[in-house]
Write a structure and sequence with these properties.
Layout: H1 2-20, E1 22-29, E2 36-39, E3 49-58, E4 66-73, E5 81-86, E6 91-96, E7 102-106, E8 117-124, E9 130-134, E10 137-142, E11 156-159, E12 178-186, H2 192-198, E13 216-219, E14 223-229
Antiparallel strand pairs: 1-12, 1-14, 2-11, 2-13, 3-8, 3-12, 4-5, 4-11, 5-6, 6-7, 8-9, 9-10
The structure holds calcium ion.
Length: about 240
């Protein structure tokens, strides 16, 4: 019986700690230049669906500052995928189509400066639907976002800066100024899992980009350090 009590006690400690925080690392984009992370691998297969999730804590208190979280540029199109936020405004997700026009989705949720916020974006080529989830909750849905068009393979993934040509040509005032953690990309549309990811109730490991496993090259003063993320709470 004593042994059973110990096992139950250990289980309670484990489950409570899992739901309260997640020990991981953050990348801080603070240098005055163009801090960014380049991913070693590209996207290996064309994407018909995707889910992008990340934790972000912007630093800049100026409102209406555009900050790129992820930029995926292809030799044919520099804005094949573009995701980020605007301080005091909301979250954005752009897909550049074959005709070079951009399909934009902008949520209206205001991301708070100095506060960790969990963001997930899902997209489907089959329906053209994009959904934005903030702190585990569905916030906005958009239709006709690059309907019928896949995300092509062979591009470059950059975190923290907006590519304006394949692999570079960053511009001032569009880079991330803040902390980023647990950025993952899947090749499917997640839905019910998103609140569980926010609450750290299920393992988070993107099968296209994984924050812990994908090979990364850090440029221009990106700093990494340990962080305890607030599972299920924005703070
Ligand atoms: Ca761009």
């Amino acid at each position: 019986m004593a042994c059973l009590r110990i096992v139950c006690f250990m289980f309670l400690i484990l489950t409570s700690s899992l739901s309260e925080y997640q020990d991981t690392y953050k990348a801080s984009f603070v240098s005055p230049g163009f801090p960014y992370i380049k991913l070693g691998p590209t996207i290996p297969e064309p994407l018909k669906e995707l889910t992008l999730c990340y934790w972000v804590r912007p630093h800049n208190h100026t409102s209406n500052v555009s900050m790129t979280v992820l930029s995926y540029a292809h030799p044919k199109r520099a804005d094949e995928l573009l995701a980020g936020l605007v301080t005091g405004s909301g979250v954005f997700f752009h897909r550049q189509k074959r005709d070079k026009n951009v399909s934009p989705a902008h949520s209206t949720y205001s991301i708070q400066v100095g506060q960790w916020t969990h963001v997930c974006i899902t997209w489907s080529s089959l329906t053209g639907t994009t959904r934005i989830f903030i702190n585990g909750k569905h916030a906005n849905a958009f239709s006709d976002i690059a309907f019928g068009e896949v995300v092509e393979t062979g591009g470059v993934v950059v975190i923290g800066q907006d590519q304006n040509i394949y692999g570079g040509s960053f511009k001032k005032d569009s880079g991330l100024q803040g902390d980023l953690s647990e950025l993952h990309l899947w090749d499917t549309m997640l839905c019910d899992e998103i609140e569980k990811i926010y609450k750290c109730e299920i393992p988070t490991d993107g099968n296209v980009i994984s924050w812990s496993k994908s090979r990364k090259i850090f440029y221009s003063g990106v700093q990494t350090s340990a962080i305890r993320l607030p599972c299920g709470k924005c703070q």
